[in-house]
Amino acid sequence: MGQLVDGIWRDEWYDTESTGGRFQRTVTAHRNWITPDGSPGPSGEGGFPAESGRYHLYVSYACPWAHRTLIFRALKGLVPHIDISVVHPDMLSDGWTFATDFPGTTGDGLFGLPFLRDIYVKVDPHASGRVTVPVLWDNIRGRIVSNESAEIIRMFNSAFDGLTGNSANFCPKDRLPQIDAMNERLYGTVNNGVYKAGFATSQAGYDEAVGPLFQTLDWLEGHLAASRYLCGAQVTEADWRLFTTLVRFDPVYHTHFKCNRAWLREYPNLWGWTREMYQWPGVAETVHFDHIVRHYHYSHATINPYRIIPINPVIDWLEPHGREAV
Ligand SMILES: N[C@@H](CCC(=O)N[C@@H](CS)C(=O)NCC(=O)O)C(=O)O
């Protein structure tokens, strides 16, 4: 774990001292958009048109943010058009690496480089900041298009439709305000909430995160009693964003991140909903529990210094979800 300072790697854990033991996620650096014709998107600059084989996605199978992009790649028919490189689950003093001694890792499929940070330095020899997955790379311009998962999935939702003929729309215009509001609530308290609880180095930092996390889970449990999906009768982007966090809840966040007021499987509606999402055609193939369980327990030395991988509950993800009745 570390970060780049003026192009030089420094092996440092998150600084929580200046924030009273609270984990604060840093702002994402690369914010351009792929669009059908290369016109600029909502941020960054233009010149990234949707083309088959042009873009490459660097992911970790362990990471919930990268996982979102893999789900959209699968559901939007982008697998033949966007290749991926999969980093090693152990994120230690060199950060994410392209070591290949773990099943499912690929190495750096484009340049054969040893570390993910080398990709960041390749575009900017003076790069500073965290080296995160996912990274969406442009083969033609030799640049990072985006390393912000929330925006990569919005691009994937529609930018390539002319190429793929896949018109599944997880962000329908009339639902967008509802989707955005849901995303915002769930990002702060759940997606990032589990990290704020897990990485806190003070009781106050932990308490401030874990309380709202379970308040939101309680609220979601009631909401999903009457609503098939988060924003109504259709699956939307909001569902996929929540899914990648909840699929990790019982195997990792409950114990490793101390989010243990309840197990996810103690919430009948949330648990059924999570299984439905898991069983959605194409999704189970994007879930790699071996990477997930290994990454968190092995990489976070401040939380689990002896790197003991817990036994973990046996979970039947294929148990019928029963959500048709809602
Ligand atoms: N805002 C980014 C966050 C991505 C992120 O934090 N990824 C984690 C993995 S789960 C990472 O690469 N962390 C490395 C670090 O912080 O040094 C996104 O959603 O794409």
UniProtKB/TrEMBL annotation:
UniProt KW keywords: Transferase
Site (Lowers pKa of active site Cys) location in chain: 253, 296
MF (Gene Ontology): glutathione transferase activity
GO CC terms in record: cytoplasm
Pfam family membership, one: GST_N_2
Residues reported to bind glutathione: 96, 130-133, 148-149
Classification via CDD domains: GST_C_Omega_like
UniProt-listed Gene3D superfamilies: 1.20.1050.10, Glutaredoxin
Active site: 63, 195
Source organism superkingdom: Bacteria
The keyword Transferase is assigned to this record: yes
Bilayer-spanning residue ranges: none
Protein name: Putative glutathione S-transferase
